[in-house]
Amino acid sequence: MVGIIVTGHGGFAAGMEKNVKMLAGADTELVAMDFMEGMTPEELSEKLKAQIEADASCSVILILTDLIGGTPYNCAATLSVSNPKVRVIGGINSALLMEACMCNITGVDPEDPDKLVEELIENARESMGKFVLDIPAAEEMTDEDGI
Q1: What is the pLDDT of residues 6-52, one digit of tens each?
Q2: Distance between CA atoms of 144 and 30, rounded to whole angstroms?
Q3: How far apart are CA 124 and CA 99, in angstroms?
Q4: N or C: which end of the chain has fewer CB within 10 A?
Q5: What's this model's pTM, rounded to 2 decimal places?
Q6: Helix (H, G, I), strand (E, B), or coil: what is residue 61?
Q7: Domain extents in the chain
Q8: Side by side, which strands form the sheet with 86-90?
């Protein structure tokens, strides 16, 4: 099983949890941990550490954060140094979180945590795009087209 902890500034983690539960169903096996205004980095680190310990039976623990270099990311990165099961990904989107949760929903237990992380990041990149309005040029009518 994959331990999944989502953390970020303000209500980011709770919002992402609601998002994925709406899309994938209630049984997504993730923990949302927001870094709220007035909270210290030490308080967040203690909460993350406690959840890492609670997820000790998992083959890999993913800590997914909103911003690379932000306080939640930095706290997670620091904790990952002392725990070989922990992997940290910053800058997540809904597609990445959904795919991570699908590991638990489908019962897939990754053999290579680093490969899982690389696949999650690559697939998240591929899930992004922009809308381009493509209006076909009007076809020129000829006499052969009829009236």
Answers
A1: 999 999 999 999 999 999 887 778 999 999 999 999 999 999 999 99
A2: 64
A3: 9
A4: C
A5: 0.88
A6: strand
A7: 2-145
A8: 30-35, 2-9, 60-65, 86-90
